[in-house]
Design a protein that fits this description.
heterodimer, A: mainly alpha, B: mainly alpha, 13 helices, globular
């Protein structure tokens, strides 16, 4: 809670938190079916209608309401982003902690494996995974999760290695704390700060990648609305129906901006050395 | 062991890991290669024809021997035969690579030319309005995905200027440099935009760090002009993190080309990967992915070397 308060006091963190909150609210509303129209319903006589009082953000080629689709799409994006980052955080933290804790041989093996994953440009690794499993919501979650796992492993391993050398860890082991207790209570708890920053920035990136994969037609599959897909569908209609392009484009940008602002603010707050150094 | 020796030793190991990963992933794809290749016509094959095709593509061998054959082939530039192009994979890759390489280099050039001056400007005006403006712009830049920017650029060009960026065609640089630049400039801006934002941020924070160093204060107190302090004393050191970032980012630019080439319909390596995936051309997916990963790794290694050359603390101290 004190972190949230600090975030709200931080000038750019405040904006970020408001954006994220807004997106979560919209996603929740869409989940509860509180969209102005059904996101899938085709109003055959109202195709490609510009924004109006009935359709605030206009309709698409099939006569579907853009605002309703956008709201559902935000929900879909947030769901994939949060699930993928949860996956990556969990897997990466476990790998990084164990590598640091076991040391030597295991450290070498685990971290080299992570290096192999990092040897691919992120989008390419995601594409490779999609090629194997076939596109879909769960594939996107897994692919984005796997791509981000080595980054979390690295973020955790470094500090965990230096924590391992500290006296309080030695002390805990001397008076007989179990391994798992030391790992969770003494190591993990001290890693919360670097992890929190990384999680927020990873969410921004996951949102971007999800939209990118959907844009390529390899993420969320129709008819489920997704921001990336809406944008790529708008491409051939941009002259007649620019609203089909502008609203998803702005929605994607604003969402990523929200997480980026929050992540940077968190870094400022949790790491005093960088105060004012990140632009 | 010194940092560099360590890096050099690990390099082939990682490369081997990458090759295993790519190879195994492709084997995990459900469905057999021959059906994927021929589609419905595969049903018309006699068992004997099927077997001879399997022998031709080498997929009748056990997996490990297929892997060894593929790996030894890689060293000789033999990446197998593409089923969609019915040509050696390597020749298809070499045909598409110049576009992607040029696109990535151009994007990087744009990003550095925009990012470094902006970052330096912001650092020297720390806290003032121009600093705030640059930071805001950089934040927006980092939050703009290439596919959003690309579509917006096409939109503005076509609706307000009536120009449709020439899409789908590509003129090699040496054949007609102007036409080539005309085709690549907007895709390169699209690709390099977010990177320009990161360069701005990194150069700003590196510059701020360097400007507070003692030697900069000494230079100032000796009466060196403000311009000279910034450009001659501080900038070379502030550029070290920019070099590292550029190396890492170059690989991402190669990968990011997938999306940008798709938007602008450019026949580069990125679109080749997408086509290969959608048409299940195993050899082509394998070949292009490992080719890109290899380039990515080599660039990263070169960056490490450059980094060590620029910063004696790493060259001498090890990590």
């Amino acid at each position: 809670m004190s972190i949230l308060r600090a975030l709200i006091r931080h000038p750019s963190g405040r904006i970020g938190v408001v954006i994220i909150g807004l997106y979560l609210l919209v996603a929740l509303a869409a989940l509860l079916g509180l969209t102005p129209h059904s996101p899938l319903k085709m109003f055959a006589i109202d195709r490609l209608k510009p924004p109006s009082l009935t359709y605030w953000m206009g309709t698409d080629l099939l006569g579907r309401d853009t605002l309703s689709r956008l709201m559902t799409g935000i929900g879909q994006s947030m769901y994939i982003a949060f699930a993928a980052v949860a996956f990556a955080t969990l897997a990466g933290t476990v790998i990084g902690l164990l590598a640091a804790w076991w040391g030597t041989l295991w450290d070498g093996i685990l971290m080299r494996l992570m290096d192999v994953l990092l040897a691919f440009p992120a989008i390419l690794l995601a594409l490779l995974i999609i090629a194997i499993v076939g596109p879909g919501t769960w594939t996107s979650i897994t692919a984005i999760g796997i791509v981000y796992t080595p980054i979390f492993a690295r973020v955790v391993r470094g500090p965990a290695l230096s924590l391992k050398q500290r006296d309080f860890v030695d002390a805990a082991r001397t008076f007989g704390s179990s391994q798992s207790y030391v790992l969770t209570r003494h190591l993990l708890l001290n890693l919360v700060a670097p992890l929190a920053v990384q999680v927020t920035l990873a969410l921004a990136w996951a949102l971007l990648t999800e939209a990118g994969l959907s844009f390529l037609g390899l993420g969320t599959q129709p008819p489920t609305p997704s921001l990336g897909l809406m944008l790529s569908e708008s491409k051939n209609l941009m002259q007649q129906a620019p609203w089909l392009m502008l609203f998803p484009a702005l929605t994607i940008m604003l969402g990523i901006l929200g997480f980026n602002l929050t992540g940077d603010a968190l870094r400022d707050i949790l790491d005093p050395r960088t105060q004012g150094r990140t632009a | 062991m010194s940092y560099l020796a360590q890096r050099l030793l690990i390099f082939p190991l990682i490369l081997l890991g990458v090759s295993v990963l790519v190879f195994v992933s492709i084997r995990l794809i459900p469905g057999d290669a021959i059906t994927a290749m021929l589609g419905t016509e595969a049903g018309m094959l006699t068992p004997a024809q099927r077997a001879s095709l399997a022998t031709y593509f080498g997929i009748d061998q056990p997996v490990w021997s297929q892997y060894l054959r593929w790996l030894t082939g890689l060293f000789q530039g033999d990446f197998g035969v593409s089923t969609i192009y019915a040509r050696p994979v390597f020749s298809v890759i070499l045909e598409r690579f110049p576009l992607t390489l040029e696109l990535a280099l151009l994007a990087m050039l744009i990003a550095l030319c925009v990012g470094v001056p902006l970052g330096v400007l912001a650092a020297t005006r720390n806290g003032r309005a121009s600093d705030l403006g640059v930071r805001l712009l950089a934040m927006l830049g980092q939050s703009t995905p290439s596919f959003v920017l690309g579509i917006l650029i096409i939109f503005v060009l076509s609706v307000y200027f009536g120009v449709v960026p020439s899409m789908g065609s590509f003129t090699p640089l040496l054949q007609d440099p102007l036409a080539n630049l005309g085709q690549l400039i907007f895709p390169a801006i699209t690709l390099g935009f977010a990177f320009a934002a990161s360069v701005t941020r990194i150069s700003r924070s590196a510059m701020l760090d360097v400007l507070s160093e003692d030697y900069v204060r000494t230079a100032r107190s000796k009466g060196v002009s403000a311009m000279s302090v910034v450009w001659h004393h501080a900038l070379p050191n502030a550029l070290i993190p920019v070099v590292t970032l550029s190396g890492v980012e170059f690989g991402y630019l190669l990968g990011g080309a997938v999306i940008v080439e798709q938007i602008f319909a450019l026949p580069g390596l990125g679109r080749l990967v997408l086509d290969a995936i959608s048409q299940r051309d195993y050899a082509l997916v394998q070949g292009t992915v490992i080719f890109i990963a290899f380039n990515f790794l080599v660039v990263n290694l070169l960056v490490d070397l450059a980094y060590a050359a620029l910063d004696p603390r790493i060259r001498l101290g090890g990590r």
